[in-house]
Amino acid sequence: MDVTIKKLNLARQETFLYTGRLLAQQADRVVLEAEFNRDDLPINEIILRRGDRFVETYFTDRWYNVFAIYDRDENRLKAWYCNIGHPAEIRAGEVSYIDLALDLLVYPDGRQVVLDEDEFAALALPAEEALQARRALQELQALFTARFAARRGTAADSDFEW
Predict the structure, then answer these.
(1) CATH of 2-153, one of 2.60.34.30, 2.40.380.10, 1.10.10.350, 2.120.10.30
(2) Which pTM does this prediction carry?
(3) Which of 11, 56, 121, 137 has the fewest CB atoms inside 10 Å of its own CB, making it the most exposed?
(4) Which of 99, 86, 96, 45 is nearest to 69 (CA)?
């Protein structure tokens, strides 16, 4: 089943729209598969390329979503890209979320890089909303750190049950 994914800004205006395919759904989450459909985009030590496969998990009760990114040619895991944002709204055929600019990039070897802190600060969020976002980032960092430690520094994407 095709699903439309909408990334929204704080004013709930659409900033990015694309289509994915439903892989799984539970009461509090949905897992979708989508292809990167933009020109090549360098992010830290990786390059997102047109046709890279994304397995995206959106939650209705967490202030983040998680994308496992696979190389289009080798189907190897490049990284996890985690967006900090409001919990997702999931409807029939549609997923939307409000992006709060703050991101976490996690490499297959466990290294973590926080991205776009300047953009997050520029949002000038109310204190409680900013605190929720920071807590979400800390939760993700702790989750990845614990899972990599349990696997002695390596983790296959299939090992991650959200």
Answers:
(1) 2.40.380.10
(2) 0.94
(3) 11
(4) 45
